[in-house]
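for the recovery benchmark. C-alpha cells below, seq after
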C-alpha cells in the first residue's frame, strides 16, 4: 500500500511540545482568577495535574481533547487582552455577563457547562467584538422581544396585465 501523501501527526507525535504549554495555560487561568478546580474542569485534567503543572511538573502526555481546551483558553486570553485593559481582562471570565449566551452568568460558568463548545462560543463572541460586530446586550434582546412591526399592504391594488404573465428569464 502506498504511503499517505499527506500524513497527519498523531497526538502523541505532537504532544511533547504541547505538554510544555500546560504551565503557561495554568498561569493564564491564575491571572484570570479561575480557581484550580475549575481550571482542571475546563482543561479536562485532574486537579493534581493542574497543581503540579503550576510548579513545573508536566504530565507525560495530553489527550487531543485537552490540547483543544488549552488552545481555546489561550485564544480567549489573548482576545481579552486585545479588547480590555487590566483588571477587566483578568476578571472578565469570572464576572456576571448579561450578553448572549451568558444571560447574567459568568462566561466561566458557560464554558464549564458546555466544555469545548462553550469555550469556542466565548472566543467567537470576543472575535465579534474585535471586528466591530458586537453581539447584543440583554436590553437590546428585551427590546427586540417587544418590538412590533405592522405591515399594511393592499395587494389587490397591484395590477399585472393578465395577457402578459410574469416569467423569470
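predicted aa per position
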Amino acid at each position: 500500500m502506498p504511503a499517505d501523501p499527506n500524513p497527519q501527526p498523531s497526538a502523541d507525535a505532537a504532544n511533547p511540545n504541547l505538554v510544555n504549554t500546560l504551565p503557561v495555560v495554568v498561569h493564564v487561568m491564575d491571572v484570570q482568577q479561575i480557581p484550580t478546580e475549575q481550571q482542571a474542569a475546563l482543561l479536562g485534567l485532574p486537579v493534581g495535574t493542574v497543581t503540579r503543572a503550576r510548579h513545573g511538573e508536566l504530565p507525560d502526555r495530553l489527550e487531543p481533547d485537552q490540547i483543544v481546551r488549552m488552545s481555546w483558553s489561550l485564544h480567549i486570553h489573548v482576545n481579552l487582552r486585545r479588547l480590555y485593559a487590566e483588571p477587566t481582562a483578568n476578571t472578565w471570565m469570572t464576572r456576571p455577563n448579561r450578553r448572549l449566551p451568558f444571560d447574567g452568568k459568568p462566561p466561566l460558568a458557560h464554558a464549564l457547562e458546555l466544555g469545548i463548545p462553550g469555550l469556542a462560543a466565548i472566543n467567537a463572541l470576543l472575535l465579534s467584538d474585535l471586528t466591530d460586530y458586537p453581539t447584543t446586550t440583554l436590553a437590546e434582546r428585551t427590546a427586540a422581544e417587544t418590538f412590533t412591526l405592522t405591515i399594511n399592504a393592499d395587494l389587490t391594488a397591484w395590477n399585472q396585465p393578465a395577457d402578459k404573465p410574469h416569467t423569470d428569464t
